[in-house]
Amino acid sequence: MIVAEEVSAVSAATEMARLASGALYAAPLAYFATRAQKDEFLRPVLAGDRVGALALTEPRAGSDAVSIKTRAERRSGNSVVTGEKRFITNGGVADFLFVFAVTDPTKPPRSGVSAIVVPRETNGVQIVKTYGLLGMHGANVVHLRFRNVKVPGENLIGGLHRGFPILLDELDRERPAVAAGMLGIARSAFESAVDYS
After folding, report:
1. Helix, strand, coil in percent for the chain, rounding step 5
2. Residue 174 a catalytic site member
């Protein structure tokens, strides 16, 4: 919380990028990934050698798992991801995308959503649009499309159809950090506007 507030007070865009990679992407891996997954997908991000992004929001779904339309079908031990995610911070520069997708449409979201790490350079991952944000000109925020993106089964985090608890845990950790960042922005604006003379 302290880091989020202090970095935001200087640069909201920098904090947004840091939070997206070092917390929103990293926290679910820290709590739910296997040791091998952490070595491959988490360790290089925490070391600053790679960038991560959380891919949750969709054209018709925010943080509401019930409305997620992106699908991940199991084929020959792989996951094949199809769908769209938008307003993805770091999405255009990330090495890894932490994607929530429906893996069993016959079940309710609580038991039919999975979490998968998708390397952004995988065939079929497309950047549809880059957004310009008021007050956060340095932030990389994009709309992504997944077209039959084939990902190894080992990239499934927490087990098949076990994405919903991961999603809830991520949102619980994200909200206070985002609020702390907003506090830093507000404090900086207040301090720059106050005349102490």
Report:
1. 40, 30, 30
2. yes
